[in-house]
Specification:
By secondary structure, this protein is mostly beta strands. It has 6 domains: 20-201, no CATH class; 249-335, Immunoglobulins (Immunoglobulin-like), CATH 2.60.40; 346-434, Immunoglobulins (Immunoglobulin-like); 445-531, Immunoglobulins (Immunoglobulin-like); 537-630, Immunoglobulins (Immunoglobulin-like, Sandwich); 634-732, no CATH class. The chain contains 7 helices and 50 strands. The strands form 13 sheets. Strands 9, 11, 12, 14, 15 and 16 form a 6-stranded mixed β-sheet that branches. Strands 18, 20, 21, 23, 24 and 25 form a 6-stranded mixed β-sheet that branches. A hairpin with a 5-residue loop joins strand 6 (186-190) and strand 7. The longest helix has 6 residues, at 20-25. 29% of the residues are buried.
């Protein structure tokens, strides 16, 4: 049957743990569990629980256990056992498998010594957890005794209705000490069918226990049962050979008042095999001996009160029936020295990067004996599981290197005096280390050699890389006249256009890369001298960069040039598509015209073109650009001055036009024989030209005398395909 007063959880949650599963569900390491501690304590109600580790919680808080099964306020399990019964229980070494999250490896375990313990999966013939044999199978469970179990009536009555079966005769669940190896928060248990279950959260409060003990084989047990059907131990009939006296006792030679010391002794033997433990007694200042410890351990930590003059210890062994002789230590003098006060605070940066150094500081301690010697600083990288001393000395500050890859750091410090009396620790908060590497330094930074006051310049730099792949951008800083650097840009771009104030003497730039956590070193440019010269100004009704649109005929652009520096001459260069049209020395403030007309316009091909006006004072050049699209789709060619004949009528002509003309375009040739008249008669001879035939004029009058002229018209069609005319030839008479 389940031998418990009530059904309870195996362990509480650990709300301060950085593993969410442990914080919410508990810890499956049996050796530090609440249930293991409770089973082996004989303390009175409310006094058996102590923290087994830094994150441990009392099973007396509804926030840490489920189903309301609090039990820290109840007596320890052994409280109601008699001294004979407790002495008859042997100390047993048991093996407990370790979960992978707890140990960090497969196949780990720990051996612990206990009087009362929970059975394991291996001992119940249920196989081994994670390959670890937690003891040998017990024959009790091999034969006729199944693993299914029921609550005792007392356990049933003392358990909440939500955590027990409907009736006492029904089977119920009971815990094993075996962890569910793949988690840090669940343990194995036997379910109501007697089978092993995968695991339950260790703060689950609806599972009972069946504690196990080992008893001495020399115990005498009755041959018949009592009225309750139980066999009883016949204590009065037990063997009475006393254990041997402990061979030795060890006490530190130097003892400080206000500290603790460890007393240890060698194990005794017992011919009857029923050694129960040891009784340790202490004498203060030569007074009577008083018992300070009774139990199975071979050592005890004693607190030395400040002001004692001497202490002496003696120890003896006992079994259920008798005791050995005493083994007594030498008298030790107690040095009455008060330990320094605990440092009131310890300061650690809230943000710590792997691969960096940090400064830890702490408050100074005081010492009423005026013999403060210094401090011991320790560091933990595993949330306080282990500590390493990193400094000892009189300073109250220390610079520590945090290795890249360190998961977290916690620091603690204590003060000590010249007699090695130590204060308690002052512990810092745990800080998660940011294991982020800085970006690389930008490889280059480029700044123009010529820098002009009142102008702008473009600073550019090479791209950085980031080992962690989280490059965020760049910070550009500028120094003016060798002064302090100030940030002028922050962002992702690899260049920045900066405005240079007129009157500056020098400028210098530096750039660094940054990610969400850290920055690279700087890449610094050469220092540049600023030329404080006023640039020429070009005034135009069209702003620089304006698109003038489509032009089908010649046009002109008006503009003027000026310069604030009266002594400077300004040279103007006009360009079309980077081809110089003209260069001249400008009259400041006078109107100028960039003419794109006549033959100059005709020579420009259809398409996009750029007009450039540059004004230079010999030190700096100002540029003004305009764009336009030439689109001429029709050409008409004729003589400016008609050709006169010999005075007789002109009756025939022949015209030849050589070129290429689009199929969907217009091609037309017209001729006149009275070209000098106010309204010449134009006759269409396109067909004759195409057929290479002589054309006969229809007109026979000429007021101002006969004269010949032609008019050739060519125009693109809807397709936009162009053509050309190579030559026009012909004759008349």
């Amino acid at each position: 049957m389940i031998f418990r007063k009530e059904v309870n959880e195996c362990g509480t949650t650990e709300p301060l743990h950085n593993d969410p599963s442990r914080a919410e569900r508990g810890n499956n390491r049996y050796s530090v569990s609440n249930i293991d501690q409770w089973l082996n304590k004989d303390n009175a109600a409310g006094t058996w629980y102590v923290d087994a580790h830094d994150l441990d919680q009392s099973p007396n808080n509804d926030s840490y256990v489920s189903h309301g099964t609090k039990y820290a306020a109840r007596p320890g399990f052994l409280y109601y056992f008699t001294e004979n019964e407790k002495a008859a229980i042997l100390l047993t070494t048991i093996r407990v498998a370790s979960s992978i999250p707890e140990s960090g490896s497969i196949g780990s375990y720990e051996d612990i010594n206990r009087k009362i313990y929970l059975p394991s999966q291996s001992e119940l013939w249920k196989g081994n957890e994670n390959g670890i044999a937690e003891g040998t199978p017990w024959r009790y469970y091999l034969d006729s005794n199944p693993c299914a179990a029921k609550l005792t009536s007392g356990c049933y009555e003392n358990t909440l209705s939500t955590t027990k079966p409907a009736v006492v005769s029904n089977n119920w669940n009971w815990w094993l000490r075996t962890p569910y190896y793949s988690t840090a928060y669940a343990s194995r248990y036997i379910n109501t069918s007697g089978s092993i279950s995968a695991g339950a959260n260790d703060n689950s409060g609806y599972i009972g226990v069946r504690p196990a003990v080992n008893l001495s084989s020399s115990l005498l047990v009755s041959s018949t049962t009592d009225p309750d059907g139980c066999y009883t131990v016949e204590w009065d009939a037990q063997p009475s050979t006393a254990p041997s006296t402990p061979p030795s006792i060890t006490v530190p030679s130097s003892i400080m008042g206000g500290t603790t010391i460890d007393i240890s002794w060698e194990a005794s033997t017992d011919p009857d095999g029923n050694l129960a433990g040891y009784e340790l007694e202490r004498s203060v200042g030569g007074g009577d001996f008083t018992q300070i410890y009774k139990g199975a351990n071979l050592s005890y930590t004693d607190s030395i009160t400040y002001g004692w003059s001497t202490v002496q210890y003696r120890v003896r062994a006992y079994d259920p029936y008798s005791t050995s002789g005493y083994r007594t230590s030498d008298v030790r003098n107690v040095v009455s020295n008060t330990a320094p006060t605990v440092p009131s605070n310890i300061s650690v940066p809230t943000e710590i990067f792997g691969g960096s150094s940090i400064v830890i500081t702490w408050a100074a301690s005081s010492d009423i004996d005026n013999n403060l010697a210094g401090y011991k600083l320790e560091k933990s990288t595993d949330s306080g599981a282990t500590w390493t001393q990193i400094y000892q000395g009189a300073e109250t500050t220390y610079s520590d290197s945090v290795v890249m890859g360190t998961p977290s750091v916690t620091y603690r410090v204590k003060a000590y005096d010249n007699l090695n009396a130590e204060s308690a620790y002052k512990t810092s908060t745990r800080v998660t280390v940011i294991n982020n590497q800085p970006p690389t330094v930008p490889k280059t930074i480029s700044v123009p050699v010529d820098v002009y006051g009142g102008g702008t310049l473009v600073v550019s730099w090479g791209q950085s890389t980031d080992p962690d792949g989280n490059l965020s951008g760049y910070e550009l800083e500028r120094s003016v006249n060798s002064g302090a650097f100030e940030q002028v840009y922050k962002g992702e771009n690899l260049s920045y256009t900066d405005s240079i104030t007129f009157g500056w003497n020098t400028v210098q730039y530096r750039v660094r890369a940054y990610d969400p956590y850290i920055v690279s070193d700087y890449k610094t440019s050469a220092k540049r001298t600023v030329t404080n010269n006023s640039a020429p100004v070009i005034s135009c009704s069209y702003a620089s960069g304006t698109n003038l649109g489509t032009k089908s005929a010649g046009f002109s652009i008006s503009y003027s040039v000026n310069d604030a520096d009266a002594a400077d001459n300004v040279t103007v260069t006009e360009k079309l598509d980077n081809q110089v049209k003209r260069t001249f020395t400008a009259t400041k403030g006078a109107n100028n015209s960039f003419a794109v007309t006549g033959e100059y316009f005709q020579k420009i091909l259809n398409g996009n073109h750029t007009l450039t006006i540059q004004a230079s004072d010999g030190k700096v050049t100002t540029t003004h650009t305009l764009t336009f699209t030439k689109q001429v789709t029709k050409a008409v060619i004729t003589f400016t001055t008609p050709m006169e004949g010999d005075g007789s009528p002109i009756t025939v002509c022949i015209v030849s036009v050589v070129g290429s003309f689009p199929a969907d375009g217009e091609f037309k040739v017209e001729v006149t024989n009275n070209a000098k008249d106010a309204s010449p008669v134009w006759e269409d001879c396109t067909s004759a030209v195409i057929q290479d035939l002589t054309y006969h004029f229809l007109n026979q009058t000429a007021v101002n005398g006969y004269a010949f002229n032609f008019r050739v018209t060519a125009e693109r069609g809807a397709s936009g395909i162009g053509g050309y005319i190579n030559s026009i030839e012909g004759g008349f008479q």
